[in-house]
Specification:
The complex is a heterotrimer.
Chain A (H helix, E strand, L loop, with lengths): L2 H28 L7 H19 L2 H25 L4 H20 L22 H7 L4 H19 L1 H11 L1 H6 L4 H27 L11 H11 L4 H23 L6 H20 L2 H7 L12
Helix pairs in contact in A: 1-5, 1-6, 1-9, 1-10, 1-11, 2-3, 2-4, 2-9, 2-10, 3-4, 3-9, 6-7, 10-11, 10-12, 11-12
Chain B lengths: L4 E5 L5 H25 L4 H10 L5 H26 L7 H17 L9 H27 L3 H21 L34 H18 L1 H11 L1 H6 L4 H28 L10 H11 L7 H22 L5 H21 E5 L11
Antiparallel strand pairs in B: 1-2
Helix pairs in contact in B: 1-2, 1-13, 2-12, 3-7, 3-8, 3-10, 3-11, 3-12, 4-5, 4-6, 4-10, 4-11, 5-6, 5-10, 7-8, 11-12, 11-13, 12-13
Chain C lengths: L10 H16 L6 H42 L6 E6 L9 H16 L4 E6 L7 H11 L4 E4 L5 H10 L4 E5 L8 E6 L1 H15 L4 E6 L4 H17 L4 E6 L6 H13 L4 E4 L5 H9 L2 E3 L1 E2 L13 E4 L2 H12 L8 E3 L6 E4 L7 H16 L9 E2 L5 E3 L7 H5 L15
Parallel strand pairs in C: 1-2, 1-3, 3-4, 4-5, 5-12, 6-7, 6-8, 8-9, 10-11
Antiparallel strand pairs in C: 11-13, 14-15
Helix pairs in contact in C: 1-2, 3-10, 6-7, 6-11, 8-9
Classes of the chains: A mainly alpha, B mainly alpha, C alpha/beta.
Chain lengths: 305, 363, 412
């Protein structure tokens, strides 16, 4: 496999967890809820998926379990953010720290456990094509699912009535409430969807990407996914660009290292984070642009009069 | 869909609950924690004893508690000011690391027979370093409207990498056989011990001073008033002419300075040199401390006490009960949730209305 | 203090406190003020009952704690020696820490369960908290403490001064005290042999190396590995990725995948995880894991494993301590001490290469061969060791370059 093909393939792999989580967060933020607990939910999903796969011998069970736990934790967050109308940032942080601790706790007996055998990745005939096949078509099916989700989420938000309602709730919950829409319910549904996406992303990390469990293995990807949604101004296609940019930079810096470039490795490792900050700053510069794009009620608890 | 529990806003916040809510939250946390212990087969009461009481049985234990509380209180004080102004600084950990790095760099310049006053330079360097690092977040928020949560968080990763590079190249101990660590600091650049027989150092004095200062600022000084108004009623603050930009810079710089101070105290106190990993997540735990303290400066002390106790208890539980280190995080998260539940009761009344209205009536 | 000594208060009090707390919350649902007050008083009363019992127990435990160390000192001959182990990662890392733990278990077998009892704490970070954990071990009565990671060095030295009757053993460090010594293994000896196998097995002539920090011990390993591979196949190249972490599986996986993408078909690592082996297995490449045998993770990919055996050393030192003859000389173990072994060699390595490796191993064990024998050139062409010379320990401990065959420059 040539270096370029390998770079493309590993970028797709590295960006997929970010993309999946970011798409879910996008829908939740469109409805006006800011869930900072993504990291904790991803960790819980990762360990639950691992336990599911190890105990049952089937990857499908692992993925399903992860989706369910993602939804459960998102709804748990919803109790505080939507139900009790508590401060969304604090609740989210609480979920992040709690999820990290709980996942480490229940994962102790499973460190070093061995996963069942997995079939080969890749789309059947397409992955034999010389360069393109190795680069684009030899990934696990979740990678392709995440790519399919981009137009799906776009279609849902912009072309369906339900999506319109979600966006309306995010822009002006009071108006939506006055029209008779049940704002808390819609927000809970959006959070549940985001929980499912985050769960899938966490499962991908522990079952496919690094088929291992170790505490803290998400290593900040949840926070990056949050940043990517803002980075992509709450639009699915731009979020995709951001996720692949970040994943690409991460893999590129590793390739640079092994090619013998003599910049200290720490500075190369900083590149993805600095790039995110720079692009974030550039995007946010125009306050009107931000006002146009950001859901107006993001982060504010909805307290009906 | 109507849930069976209806939530009504109270006309006036319930004062009794406001006072008792943190205690209630702690009791609830312990009760839930006991349940968790029981679920994994450890005897709950003994486990809670190991977790909460045993660390406090010796003077040395109290000293360790103080050592753990110091950075938590300092970071939390800064975060209290920030969160009051609705500026969500998540990057206290990064500011702590940069403050430690700057202070450590100055500390390494000390010669073996330097006088103890050298410490003042070290402390100043760390305060300036932490504040400057936070000013990056402030500047980006001010000039570019960049979300401070994400910027400060990304900067945490950058700070960790900077520290890792620093102890591997420029500041590495030449006698250290190439291991990534700085030389040990000279005595002039380390904090003397305050309570003999423990590790509790004079950083505790700095905590008391900071506590007093922040309390003074928040309750007696005009800028503190501005911060509170900016957080509670941003429109009112802009009508009154309070500068939003001043708020951002003030809150972030102050919080960065305090976090930097916490970092240098950690490095000049218990550790004694610069190493790749100097903080077990104090910057993030301080966020919980700030919330448990209900964003009041004085409240950070009991809040940090409980959090530090959880740290120590979690460690002790490892050797006594065989539980993993991760348990501390579980308890800390539980504490935050219980505080939020109890706090919400101050402002809201919950009423059981049954399932009669489960299906929503047509508008 | 174990749970049998603890006779705490009853479940009744616990549940009454819990019920009162919960009742108080639910009391908000439609009850008059007087009842609220009653519930509040009941809750407070339970809290005092709880704290009262704890204080009593607290006082009772103090004399028990004070009596224990004295008893331990007196009854050294009769009672088993208490030995403590401090681990930086979980035992389940299938790597560095696991090998230490296997060594501990081996030593218990050798010395006898009646002579020693061991305890361990895992996941102890190399921060200021380590001092507290080790001090707690001392307070629990352990007389011989093994600290298995470099970062514990300064704390152990400090504690060694405070507790002169406790013996401290520090792995991979260099500071000592009258009651503290260091121990380490000459990993490079095993690396040379592993490199020979890699050089024989590779078809693409590119070998990938996932390394943590550019410290001399790691560089010794990389260089010895390269020299060994080149002795079989002069055309090989070694590519290195630094993860800047001892234990970060996702980074290890990314590094392994990158190296595979760059053409490596044999991988090895110095980090403490099994992620590299796992990645090699997924990609269908070969791997020579380091630290432990990772066949469970990489059944097809593993062509040999360089395993660390701390057991013989632990058994020896524990026996010395039991006999009262604890020797404080620092030790840097050889292959011949049984500290290293190359296991599980599969047929993916050509038989003639295996034979050559065995010949070199025989010479190495007898002391007739040193992996770093001149002439050695660094990869910028400078000669670092003259022909016929053997590198001394001091130069080994300060190694900071790559030998010819490794791509790139040592970071910093």
């Amino acid at each position: 496999m040539s270096v370029a093909a390998s770079l493309i393939a590993t970028t797709m792999n590295a960006s997929t967890p970010l993309l999946l989580a970011a798409l879910g967060i996008l829908v939740a933020e469109r409805s006006g809820v800011l869930n900072l607990g993504v990291e904790g939910i991803m960790l819980m999903a990762a360990i639950v998926a691992y336990i599911g796969a190890v105990e049952s011998g089937s990857f499908a069970v692992g993925f399903l379990a992860a989706i369910l736990i993602g939804i459960a934790f998102a709804l748990f967050f919803a109790i505080f953010a939507v139900g009790l109308r508590a401060n969304q940032q604090a609740s989210g942080l609480g979920v992040a720290i709690f999820g990290a601790g709980l996942s480490a706790y229940i994962g102790i007996p499973y460190q070093g456990a061995v996963l069942p055998e997995r079939g080969p990745d890749g789309i059947m005939f397409l992955d034999k094509i010389p360069f393109i096949g190795e680069a684009f078509f030899s990934q696990h099916w979740i990678v392709y699912l995440s790519l399919l989700m981009i137009p799906a989420v776009w279609f849902f938000l912009y072309k369906t009535r339900a999506g319109l309602v979600v966006r309306a709730v995010g822009e002006s919950p009071f108006s939506a409430n006055a029209l008779g829409y049940d704002v808390p319910l819609i927000r809970c549904c959006a959070l549940a969807f985001s929980g499912a996406c985050i769960g899938l992303s966490g499962a991908y990390l522990s079952l496919i990407y690094t088929p291992l469990w170790v505490e803290g293995m998400v290593a900040g990807r949840g926070w990056i996914a949050l940043a990517l949604v803002t980075f992509g101004t709450w639009r699915p296609f731009r979020v995709f660009l951001g996720a692949y940019l970040f994943g690409g930079m991460t893999m590129l810096q590793m390739n640079l290292q092994s090619m013998g470039i003599s910049i200290p490795t720490q500075f190369i490792s900083m590149a993805p984070y600095l790039a995110t900050i720079i692009v974030l700053a550039l995007i946010s510069r125009n306050p009107r642009w931000i006002r146009l794009n950001m859901p107006a009620s993001l982060g504010k608890p909805f307290i009906p009069h | 869909m109507n849930f069976p529990i209806a939530i009504y806003n109270r006309e006036r916040p319930n004062r009794f609950l406001a006072a008792v809510s943190p205690i209630l939250a702690v009791i609830l946390t312990l009760a839930l924690g006991g349940a968790i212990f029981a679920m994994v087969g450890k005897e709950p009461l003994y486990s809670l004893y190991v977790f909460c009481v045993e660390p406090l049985l010796t003077l040395r234990g109290w000293g360790e508690l103080g050592v753990k509380m110091t950075p938590l209180i300092l970071c939390a004080l800064g975060l209290v000011v920030c969160y009051r102004a609705n500026i969500w600084n998540i990057g206290a950990e990064g500011q702590l690391i940069i403050g430690a790095l700057c202070g450590g760099y100055v500390a390494l310049q000390a010669s073996p027979d330097q006088s103890g006053l050298f410490m003042i330079w070290v402390i100043l360097a760390s305060i300036v370093g932490g504040a400057l690092y936070a000013s990056i977040t402030a500047w980006l928020r001010d000039k570019c409207n960049a979300n401070e949560i994400l910027v400060s968080l990304m900067l945490v990763y950058v700070a960790e990498l900077l520290l890792s590079w620093a102890v591997q190249s420029p500041l590495r101990d030449p006698q250290g056989l190439g291991f990534p660590q700085s030389p040990m600091f000279e005595t002039a650049a380390t904090l003397p011990i305050m309570i003999p027989g423990t590790r509790m150092h004079w950083g505790g004095g700095l905590v008391v001073i900071s506590l007093f200062l922040i309390w003074l600022i928040m309750s007696k000084m005009f800028i503190g008033f501005q911060v509170r108004v900016a957080g509670l009623a941003p429109k009112a603050s802009s009508y009154a002419g309070f500068s939003n930009r001043a708020m951002i810079y003030f809150a972030l710089l102050l919080s960065g300075a305090l976090a930097g101070l916490a970092g240098v105290i950690e490095v000049c106190g218990p550790i004694g040199q610069l190493t790749p990993k100097i903080s077990p997540g104090y910057g993030f735990a301080a966020i919980i401390v700030a919330f448990v303290a209900r964003l009041k400066p004085v409240g950070t002390v009991p809040a940090a006490f409980v959090m530090a106790l959880f740290y120590l208890g979690g460690e002790l539980a490892q050797s006594r009960l065989g539980t993993p280190a991760a348990l501390t995080g579980v308890f800390q998260g539980l504490l935050l949730f219980c505080i939020m539940v109890c706090d919400s009761m101050i402002f809201c009344r919950f009423r059981w209305v049954g399932f009669g209205n489960w299906k929503k009536e047509a508008a | 203090m174990d749970s049998t000594e603890y006779a705490g208060f009853s479940w009744k009090t616990f549940y009454s406190a819990l019920t009162c707390g919960l009742t108080f919350i639910t009391v908000e649902i439609n009850v008059r003020t007087s009842l609220k007050l009653v519930a509040a008083v009941a809750a407070l009363a339970s809290v005092f009952a709880l704290s009262g019992c704890d204080d009593k127990k607290g006082d009772a435990s103090k004399p028990a704690d004070a009596a224990k160390p004295a008893a331990a000192q007196k009854a050294d001959a009769k009672e088993p020696l208490k030995v403590g182990f401090v681990y930086v990662a979980p035992i389940a890392d299938v790597g560095y820490t696991k090998q230490h733990d296997l060594g501990r278990l081996y030593a218990i077998e050798q010395v006898g369960k009646d002579k020693v009892t061991t305890t361990f704490v895992e996941n102890v970070p190399e921060t200021a908290d380590a001092e507290r954990v080790i001090r707690q071990m001392v307070n629990d009565g352990n007389k011989l403490i093994f600290g298995t990671s470099f970062g514990y060095m300064n704390y152990m030295q400090k504690l060694a001064k405070e507790y002169p009757d406790v013996k401290f053993e520090h792995a991979t460090g260099y500071k000592t005290a009258p009651n503290m010594t260091t121990y380490n293994i000459r990993f490079y000896e095993g690396r040379y042999l592993a490199g020979m196998l890699a050089g024989g097995a590779t078809k693409s002539n590119i070998i990938g190396y996932v390394a943590p920090f550019p410290i001399p011990e790691v560089l010794q390993g990389i260089n010895a590995f390269t020299l060994g591979a080149k002795s079989i196949n002069p055309n090989i190249q070694v590519k290195v990725i630094w993860t800047n972490a001892w234990y970060d599986p996702p980074k290890d996986t990314d590094s392994a995948k990158t190296l595979i993408g760059q053409g490596a078909d044999v991988l090895t690592q110095h980090t403490n995880t099994s992620a590299v082996a796992s990645a090699a297995e997924s990609a269908g490449k070969m791997v020579i894991p380091y630290n432990s045998n990772m066949k469970s993770v990489a059944p097809n990919a593993q062509i040999a494993a360089l395993v660390l055996n701390w057991g013989p050393y632990y058994a020896k030192k524990m026996q010395q301590a039991v006999d009262g003859k604890w020797d404080k000389t620092p030790v840097w173990m050889h292959y011949s001490d049984g500290a290293l072994s190359l296991e599980g060699i599969t047929d993916k390595v050509p038989a003639d290469v295996v034979k050559k490796m065995e010949e070199v191993k025989a010479k190495l064990v007898k002391g007739e061969f040193h992996p770093f024998t001149g002439p050695i050139k660094d990869n910028e062409g400078k000669e670092t060791l003259k022909s016929g010379d053997v590198m001394n320990d001091k130069d080994l401990s300060t190694m900071n370059y790559y030998v010819d065959g490794v791509i790139g420059k040592v970071p910093n």
